[in-house]
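Me: I keep going back and forth on a fold encoding question. No explanation is needed for now; the record alone will do.

Assistant:
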Amino acid sequence: ANPDLISREVLALYQRPLRVRGWDAALLATCRAAGGSSHQQVAAQFAAAQQLPALLVTGDHDRIATPAKVSAVAALLLRTQRAVVPDCGHLSHEEAPGRLLQLLVPFCSRRLAADSRSGSGGERWEQQT
């Protein structure tokens, strides 16, 4: 990724929580406390998630959610579109917000239009906003 796309100040904001002693143990404990799901529950949740439309976006220089990893996840989901933001790392919303929006807006617009035509969720969406 291009380090010039994120200012030192923004990068420092992302790094700041990592300097707190015990942050990793607290994150792990939080995830465990929120979890508690059985393998059957996780399998059922994943099966339901497979049916949802999803747009998986990664940067072509993302070292965390690499394009290969995103492709592997996309292959497991039934209604997935995958996109790679060029010249971008893991923080596409910071590094390339315009390019990210060029992907998100059409995807979300199509989903909202489809939901309003089918009556499957459009009303719920409006109530939640």
The longest strand covers residues 54-59. Residues 122-129 have pLDDT under 50 and may be disordered. The radius of gyration is 18 Å. The longest helix spans residues 97-118.
